[in-house]
Design goal:
InterPro entries: 2Fe-2S_ferredoxin-like_sf, 2Fe-2S_ferredoxin-type, 2Fe2S_fd_BS, Beta-grasp_dom_sf, Cyt_P450, Cyt_P450_B, Cyt_P450_CS, Cyt_P450_sf. With 757 residues, the chain is of the alpha+beta class. The protein has 25 helices and 31 strands. The protein has a six-stranded mixed sheet. A hairpin with a 2-residue loop joins strand 14 and strand 15. Helix 9 runs antiparallel to helix 13.
């Protein structure tokens, strides 16, 4: 979350002089994350140090130890025992969670350490769970529609002034319970605090605005204690500390002030940076327009690349070391989220914005006990703003000459002005874009499983309730959550007109990380599966004719597309290749639909297709669709480039997902009991159920996010029992200690587990 207080002063430019690894220790570097060099190109600046001196010491801003690698940032951020967030540990005046320190009131819980911070996290967490935020979706959409309506007829806009600042402010303040008269008056000063240089007139206005915010929070808490309403401040004002006393007004001022800061300018920054990027990269903007479902995945990539909070800081409690660099008690340590998010050890080609990347490991929401509690709300606001912009003013163009960025990007980054022009459009007149919340989650059962080819099964699914399933279109896929916690995506290959069932084809990947093998093992008639979707990143666009190219299991989305083209009586041709005839799933079904428009090419009999001939023989308006192994898609892309058809190509790659995923055998799952120490409830966890699925049905306000064991949001203290760790976050030492676990993927190797819940 963001902080209330001044951004750091911008020092005079310094020469970038990376050190060698041998210079760790007491030697100092000229590292300065507020320098002109870093402001101009932050990722390149951090990369230079990561490659030469990834952890070192600098004497700028009073001296501190800097880090640049993902692993070191995670280690420091998660180790509250060694690295403190509290002002008291750092000593002196001002907030200690940024470098250099800034003025401002102490903010709970971000400037406290556990266990003191825990009571305030427990206070706010129930307001910001996935379920609680999902209920806010209509309100977010309503405000977004209202804000866009105010400028859509003009044909021009300053996205910061007119959208990305007022919208998050309105949503956050409305949710909390502030009257509409306060929204504009509070939004401006919060943005001023982040965007102004210290000592400037604008910074003074921001400070005055914070004084007014303090006053209004106190007044609103008093009003809600006297007459509660259906808002978040009423909820907070009624809560009690563990000793039974109401939280004091001073405590609530700190907590509510942090919620406002975290909800307003951080989302402003992310949305603005994304809008600028999409203006500069119209091909990615068009992909999001053509495939709206892609935004769910792309949001994490935008968060990774455009992290609003660039860095934070901790203070060492004791003498220690980080990445080979000694750190003395009392020294401050910089943990730059932006550097971690661009570490090639975790994210391949980190400076490339890849809308298909699984970027769930990004640290833009932090990690550990201070991970941003408002992550779900931030995503919801961001997606709704981007959706309405792409839907209602899709041809917007940012006026580059008018862009104004923050004066320093060392702690917070963002834009102060983003002027843009677009074709004027109509006001919504009572309609609105549907808000994007969580993906639809469905409980399905396996209806039938049959062999489709060598190593491929044809799985048909229906709703556990027997109800009709959500509609879908060719190119859509399901995200299947396996009993082990693994997540895999499979294209729907059935008929969209069959509303009572879904159909997927699953190839058993012998060299994979176990997901396909697990699905082959558990897919039996009557087996239960939880899925999300359908989502469509590969839609079938309108075109006068089509060329479909399928390779191996890539035939699954192509089969649905061919069926749709045939039904519409559109011209098309389909070419399907595979290693051998026995490995080619759905070949006869494809032939039955397409007849002589289908060409089947088993490689061991027919060799490789003549791609230049196939693609070069298409018309200038032919839509070319390709799905299959990466090597095949690469070859098709090269052929399209050679034949002048690159703009007509649509592809979907089947990727294995996250290369850092922990491998394990789900066959070892055993049943166990979990006892919740705070409530005294004991629950049974069967082998086919995930621990978190059992817990979230019984624990209101349960905190979790990625459900992959990456983010640390669900880390829970273990009081007894032997946890089985299946996350990729805990260190080996932490695993051996068994004092905490990630309940989204972890299990238990003993008969009973006792958790601090």
């Amino acid at each position: 979350m963001a902080r209330l207080g001044n951004t750091a002063q911008r020092p005079a430019p310094v020469e970038l002089a990376p050190m060698t690894a041998a210079q760790h220790g007491t030697a100092t570097a000229s590292f300065d994350h507020h320098s002109a060099e870093c402001n101009a190109a932050p990722t390149a600046y951090y990369r230079a140090y990561r490659e030469t001196c990834p952890v070192g010491r600098t004497d700028t801003h009073g001296g501190f130890v800097y880090t640049t690698r993902y692993a070191d940032v995670v280690r420091v951020a998660r180790d509250d025992d060694t690295f403190s967030s509290a002002r008291a540990t750092a000593g002196g005046e001002g907030t200690a969670i940024v470098i250099p320190r800034g003025p401002g009131l102490e903010q709970y819980p971000i400037e406290l350490d556990p266990p003191a911070a825990t009571r305030y996290r427990d206070l706010i967490n129930p307001l910001l769970t996935q379920d609680a935020v999902a209920e806010l979706a209509p309100m977010v959409a309503r405000h977004t529609t209202r804000v866009v309506d105010a400028f859509i007829e003009a044909g021009s806009v300053d996205f910061v002034r007119d959208l990305t600042n007022p919208l998050p402010a309105a949503v956050t303040l409305d949710w909390l319970g502030f009257p509409e008269a306060d929204w504009a008056r509070l939004a401006g000063p919060i943005h001023d605090i982040f965007a102004a240089l210290p000592g400037s007139e604008r910074a003074r206005r921001g400070a005055e605005g914070l004084a007014y915010l303090d006053q209004r929070i106190r007044e609103l808490v008093a009003e809600r204690r006297a007459a509660p309403a259906a808002d978040a401040v009423s909820y907070l004002a009624a809560q009690r500390r563990p000793d039974g006393e109401l939280f004091s007004v001073d405590e609530l001022v700190s907590v509510i002030g942090l919620l406002i800061a975290g909800g307003v300018d951080t989302t402003t920054s992310l949305t603005g940076s994304t809008l600028v990027h999409l203006s500069r990269h119209p091909e990615q903007r068009q992909r999001l327009i053509d495939s709206p479902d892609l935004l769910t995945n792309a949001t994490e990539e935008f968060l990774r690349v455009f992290a609003p909070s660039q860095s934070m800081a901790r203070t060492a409690r004791t003498d220690t070391e980080v990445g080979g660099c000694p750190v003395s008690a009392g020294e401050r340590v910089l943990i730059p989220w932006v550097a971690a998010n661009h570490d090639p050890a975790v994210f391949a080609e980190p400076e490339r914005v890849d809308l298909d990347r699984d970027a769930a490991r990004h640290l833009s929401f932090g990690i550990g006990s201070h991970r941003c509690a408002g992550a779900h709300l931030a995503r919801l606001m961001f997606r709704e703003m981007i959706t309405q912009i792409l839907t209602r003013l899709p041809d917007y163009r940012v006026v580059e000459e008018g862009l104004v960025g923050y004066p320093t990007h060392g702690n917070q980054t963002g834009w102060d002005a983003i002027p843009a022009v677009f074709t004027p459009g109509p006001r919504a007149t009572g309609t609105r874009t549907a808000a994007l919340g969580r993906a639809v989650e469905l409980d399905l059962v396996v209806e039938t499983v049959t062999a489709a080819a060598e190593g491929v099964i044809d799985v048909r699914l229906r709703a556990a309730t027997g109800d009709p399933l959500p509609s879908w279109a060719p190119g859509a896929h399901l995200e299947v959550r396996l009993p082990s916690g693994r997540v895999r995506q499979y294209s729907l290959c059935g008929d969209p007109e069959q509303a009572d069932r879904y159909r997927i084809g699953v190839l058993r990947e012998t060299a994979g990380r176990g997901g396909s093998a697990e699905l082959h093992a558990v897919a039996a008639t009557g087996a239960a599966l939880t899925v999300r979707g359908p989502r469509n990143h590969f839609p079938l666009v309108d075109a006068p004719d089509y060329l479909f190219l399928a390779g191996g299991i890539g035939v699954t989305p192509i089969l649905a597309m061919v069926r749709a083209a045939a039904r519409r009586q559109l011209p098309y041709r389909v070419v399907y290749g595979g290693r051998s005839a026995v490995s080619m799933a759905f070949a006869e079904e494809l032939r039955a639909v397409a007849g002589d428009r289908a060409t089947l090419l088993p490689q061991d009999e027919a060799g490789l297709p003549d791609l230049d001939g196939l693609i070069g023989g298409t018309g200038a308006d032919t839509a070319i669709y390709c799905c299959g192994p990466g090597a095949m898609i690469d070859a098709v892309q090269r052929a399209c480039d050679r034949t002048g058809r690159a703009g007509q190509l649509h592809v979907e790659r089947f990727t294995a997902g996250d290369d850092l995923e922990v491998a394990f055998d789900p066959a070892t799952n055993t049943a166990f009991e979990v006892h919740l120490a705070r409530t005294g409830v004991t629950l049974s966890v069967p082998p086919e159920k995930r621990l978190i699925e059992v817990l979230r049905a019984a624990v209101p306000g349960l905190t979790y996010d990625c459900e992959k064991g990456y983010c640390g949001a669900c880390e829970t203290r273990v009081l007894a029992g032997t946890p089985e760790h299946r996350d990729s976050l805990l260190t080996e030492e932490e695993r051996q200690a068994g004092r905490s676990m990630m309940i989204c993927v972890g299990r238990c190797t003993s008969d009973r587990l006792v958790l601090d819940l």
